[in-house]
Amino acid sequence: MAKPAAAPQTQAAPSQAGADLLVKDKPVMKPVDISISGTPHRIICPSDEVKNLEATADHINQKLRDIRKNIRGKTPTNEELLVLLCLDLHDQVQQLKHEVKSHEDSSSQALALIDKITKDARSVLK
Hints:
Keywords: Cell cycle, Cell division, Coiled coil. It is a single chain. The chain is of the alpha+beta class and 126 residues long. It is built from two helices and five strands. It has helices spanning 50-70, 78-125; strands at 3-4, 12-14, 20-22, 29-36, 39-46. The chain has a three-stranded antiparallel beta sheet with strand order 1-5-4, covered by helices on one side. Helix 1 packs across helix 2 (78-125). Residues 6-20 have low confidence and may be disordered.
């Protein structure tokens, strides 16, 4: 994914002849300006991930707007909103991990059942 702007931006390495060549197998990095909750950020990311980074920033900003709308009687600070968003996203990640584990368990059970049926069928056919 993306890196903070402090990351090196050069993609060229000097050759023995002194000419600059693109580093093979290393993506071309590009600075991208995004805004999260009104705060601008310059992120260095692979050029083929720029649209994904921008879509992610849009998604985060929409989630922040949704959280802000659901809070009544108080105007939360950006820091409070970001903490709530982090907690929400962490919860989503944990739920997805649980779902993946559940699917893996179901797959294992199905494969074990298929193996048992295959063995039983072979023993009957002998």
